[in-house]
Amino acid sequence: MRATAVTTSAATVTIAAAAVLVAAAVLLLAPVHSLEVTDVHTGRILWRVPVVDGSTVDLDYTNSIFNAPTTERFEVSGRSLRLVEISSTQEAVLQYLALDPPYQSRDGRLVSGRHGPAVGELTIRIGQTGRQYLVVGGREIPLYRVGTGEAVRLTISRMPRVFVLIGQPHPR
User: Fold this and answer.
1) Gap between the Cα atoms of 128 and 144, Å rounded
2) Using CA atoms in the order 105, 64, 131, 60, what is the torsion angle rounded to 10 degrees?
3) Which of 23, 33, 39 has the alpha carbon at shortest distance from 76?
4) Greater confidence, 6 or 142?
5) Nearest CA to 136 among 7, 33, 41, 39?
6) DSSP 165
7) Quick one: pLDDT at residue 26?
8) Which of 68, 145, 147, 151 is the residue whose CA sits 20 to 30 A from 39?
9) Please, are residues 160 and 28 in contact by the beta-carbon 8 Å criterion?
10) Vertex 122, ends 145 and 110: CA angle to 5°?
């Protein structure tokens, strides 16, 4: 009788362990969206960050003409990015970008709620004075570290969760 109890207990543990492994595999292989930042010239993925529909991606930089902090806010929609607003501390930046008033005032900034089309990719050239960086889900991605004059491409991809979790490349 005792041997049967030990065998049953070992079989139960084996089945439970197998169930946990299957559940982990399903979770890790489930497809998710991620924002990928790629070097335009080499095609190398520099950063990969998980996103969901409705996530915001802020491109923050200092406008080189007016030396003013500026943010271009994009929203994730499927595998696209859509411009949903531009804000700056200087009205001249919004005027230079041909964004007509009226502007909203929020947190010491003027905000244009002008929406742009959804795009499958966005290319950003790294400027000498802009110090561009992205903010995605509270995480800062320092695009400026790629180098002045270089370019990066933003895309939304769909891949197994495990690749997003372990694949956190960084620039040179």
Assistant:
1) 9
2) 20
3) 33
4) 142
5) 33
6) H
7) 58
8) 68
9) yes
10) 85
Give 100's DSSP letter: P
Residues 151/121, Cβ–Cβ less than 8 Å: no
Residues 63 and 89: beta-carbon distance below 8 Å: no
In sequence order, the 6+-apart residues with CB closer than 8 A to the CB of 12 are: none
Q: Where are the domains of the chain?
A: 32-166
Which among 50, 42, 49, 89 is positioned nearest to 70, based on CA atoms?
89
pLDDT at 172: 46
Q: What is the pTM of this model?
A: 0.79
Segment 42-50 mean pLDDT: 94
Distances (CA, A) of 33 to 49, 53, 81, 101, 129: 9, 8, 12, 35, 32
Sign of CA dihedral 24, 28, 32, 36: positive
pLDDT at res. 112 = 96
pLDDT at 1 over 60: no
* Exposure of 40 in the CB half-sphere (CA atoms within 13 A): 15
Using the structure block, give the residue that is written with the tokens 């244009």.
112
